[in-house]
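Reply to thread "Modeling small-molecule complexes from scratch"

Following up on the discussion above, here's a worked example others can learn from. I took a protein sequence and the SMILES for zinc ion and predicted the complex. Inputs first:
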Amino acid sequence: MMELLFLGTGASVPSRDRATSCIAVRVGPDIVLMDCGEGSQRQLMVSPFSFMKIRTILITHMHGDHVFGLPGLLQTMSLSGRRDPLTVYGPVGLAHGVSAMMSVTEGETQYPLEVVELEGGETFDVCGLRITAYATSHGTPSVGFTVREPDRPGRPDRARALELGVHDGPEMALLKAGETVNGVSPSEVVGPPTPGASVSYTGDTVPCPGIVEASAGVDVLIHESTYMSSESEMAADHFHSTASQAAVAAREAGVRCLMLTHVSNRYDDRSLVEAEAREHFPEVVAVEDMDLFEITSRGVRRASR
Ligand SMILES: [Zn+2]
Ligand SMILES: [Zn+2]
């Protein structure tokens, strides 16, 4: 099971009810943070998630509304006693950006801080999760990320075991514990694996085929939706996407659910943005700050707003 908490869903500037980009993915106790806009640490403090459980931070690009919160968060974790190493992943320019922000603010961490720059196609594992960066297009070095939980192996199928001559009771218990019983091995009766949860986060970008390819079949595609189609020229000029374009990507990638974020402040009524996307893809939600979702093999469930 994967939990998805939206800490900041605004675009470019914070507003009274929305902070700038920051999303937390929690699996068990471990948190992967995606982008870290201004105020992210305070959003975490008033959320059910602990900022001390962050295992890694993924940055999509170096625009301020995605990184202004990073030096503050890195420093607070240090002052709060963090000693575990932390790795921050992001596009080319991240290492210079982090070191510049830390040095001008005289920030220092009492834990090993590693910064890794990567390009689309690179994959790494964190806390048992497989994370892959993919290329996006935003007029500045940028990447999106998929985060995938591994599939859980199937459990022994009782009906099949009975058929093959294993009896309920101690025999079945031994088989479930991994032993061969009456000549029947556990691998002969194992059921299908349970698929792990998966999300894809585009960060800021114009539509590009790499998003569809990397996000194929994920449970949740978190796609930026800065504009509506009425402003599609402006969207292209500023390297952003419209709600319709996000929905077309979701449809082409065959995802389970589309979540629209980074919606411009010009759209007070986010239900209109959602409605535009729904013309192309039915399962869509325009997310707001502090929206929390649970993703399991059974589906995507809103846990709270
Ligand atoms: Zn942005
Ligand atoms: Zn941007």
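What I'd highlight from this example: Residues 61, 63, 138, 204 surround zinc ion (ligand 2) (CB under 6 Å). Residues 158-188 form one domain. Questions welcome below.
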